[in-house]
Design goal:
Layout lengths: L1 E6 L3 H11 L5 E7 L2 H11 L3 E5 L7 H11 L4 E5 L3 H12 L4 E4 L6 H20 L1 H6 L15 H6 L1 E6 L3 H10 L8 E5 L5 H12 L3 E4 L10 E4 L5 E7 L2 E7 L11 H7 L8 E5 L8 H9 L3 E5 L9 H7 L5 E3 L1 H19 L1
Parallel strand pairs: 1-2, 1-3, 3-4, 4-5, 6-7, 6-12, 7-9, 8-9, 12-13, 13-14
Antiparallel strand pairs: 10-11
Helix pairs in contact: 4-9, 8-13, 10-11, 11-12
Catalytic activity: [protein]-L-glutamate 5-O-methyl ester + H2O = L-glutamyl-[protein] + methanol + H(+); L-glutaminyl-[protein] + H2O = L-glutamyl-[protein] + NH4(+)
EC number: 3.1.1.61, 3.5.1.44
GO molecular function: protein-glutamate methylesterase activity
């Protein structure tokens, strides 16, 4: 059984979470806390496997409590945040501070919204509990080092790097992008993330990476030296137009229960010259992206998957490995260097 502790000052939200958790036989609700001070004592008593943590609470905010928890007693935490500008900014800060995942509270309590929220919560609680081993060794993982290489201009316009990720992906994507030179081919990224959070995520990356990182907009033509993040609740697909790759956003049906979906992005790249595509799957729960990666691999793309040891949740990369969809399985710290070595080989062949 996975022991869960709820930390939220709202009695209504605690009741909602309580009802959802009790629906699943693998989850056990061991306690509820109305604020971090109460939670601190309950953690000592119940030693939960995972806890849900509200962002905005009286007496002590969720971020302060999270930072203290990660310093003194690291454990898997799912942050619950409102879909507001402030809530989105704090949610991204929470992920940077050690939270395993962040889930937006449902704005409308309709049956459809509640069903989707319940599935997301249960899935993420289970994934977070399985990440405890990773969390304990997180500080031992090496930070990606910035790599210097001037990618030739023709190659920058021919190649494309596509990245898919879910749970734990915000930090993994940051580590990969920080190691890639500014003068690089265009990069497209689908991270499972709620609406509004994606813009804040892109802004954070833009502030620490050498290329320009932005939330994608419909109709954009991919440009070298730029990375594009799929907006929350929109599939990002790539289409060839007048010899260039263009972004198309849509709110079609979820794929693998996700919108944006990694498979939707990977599948769209089959319309172009797949030998010019490098695609990677990073940490995340489920199977989204695995089938699309296999299709790209079969059509000549260079494909990579993050290894189990460096993944917070080895779900999506594991599914790709099981399908025989990858050319290499690598630790996170080697993903960027493998991409650059591949580009160097292509550059040498074109001389």
């Amino acid at each position: 059984m996975i022991k869960v502790l709820i930390v939220d000052d709202s009695a209504a939200i605690r009741a909602l979470l309580r009802d959802i958790i009790r629906q699943d036989k693998e989850l056990q609700l061991v306690a509820e806390a109305g604020d971090p001070y109460e939670a601190r004592e309950l953690i000592k008593v119940h030693n939960p496997d995972v806890l849900t943590l509200d962002v905005e609470m009286p007496r002590m905010d969720g971020i302060t409590f999270l930072k203290n928890l990660m310093r003194l007693r690291p454990m898997p935490v799912i942050m619950l945040s409102t879909l507001t500008t402030k809530g989105a900014e704090i949610a991204i800060e929470a992920l940077e501070s050690g939270a395993i995942d962040c889930l937006a509270k449902p704005r409308l309590l309709s049956d459809g919204n509640l069903e989707a929220f319940a599935w997301e919560l249960i899935s993420r609680l289970k994934a977070a509990a399985s990440s405890r081993r990773f969390l304990m060794q997180r500080k031992a993982l090496a930070e990606a080092q910035a790599l210097n290489w001037q990618c030739p201009e023709p190659l920058r316009r021919q190649q494309i790097l596509a990245i898919g990720a879910s749970t734990g992906g915000t930090e993994a994507i940051r580590d990969v992008l920080m190691a890639i030179p500014q003068q690089c081919p265009p990069i497209v990224i689908t991270q499972h993330i709620p609406p509004m959070f994606s813009a804040r995520f892109a802004n954070r990356l833009d502030g620490c990476c050498r290329m320009h990182v932005q939330e994608a907009t419909d109709g954009q033509v991919l440009q070298p030296g730029n990375a594009y993040i799929a907006p929350g609740d929109y599939h990002m697909r790539l289409h060839r137009y007048a010899g260039r790759m263009m972004i198309r956003l849509d709110q079609g049906d979820p794929v693998n229960r996700h919108r944006p979906s990694v498979d939707a992005m990977f599948d769209s790249l089959l319309d172009g010259k797949t030998e010019n595509v490098t695609a990677m799957l990073l940490t995340g729960m489920g199977r989204d992206g695995a089938q699309g990666l296999r299709q790209l691999f079969d059509n000549g793309a260079y494909t990579l998957a993050q290894d189990e040891q460096s993944s917070m949740v080895w779900g999506m990369p594991a599914a790709a490995v099981q399908l025989g969809a990858v050319a290499a399985v690598l630790p996170l710290s080697q993903m960027a260097s493998a991409v650059i070595e591949h580009w160097k080989q292509l550059a040498a062949m074109s001389v």
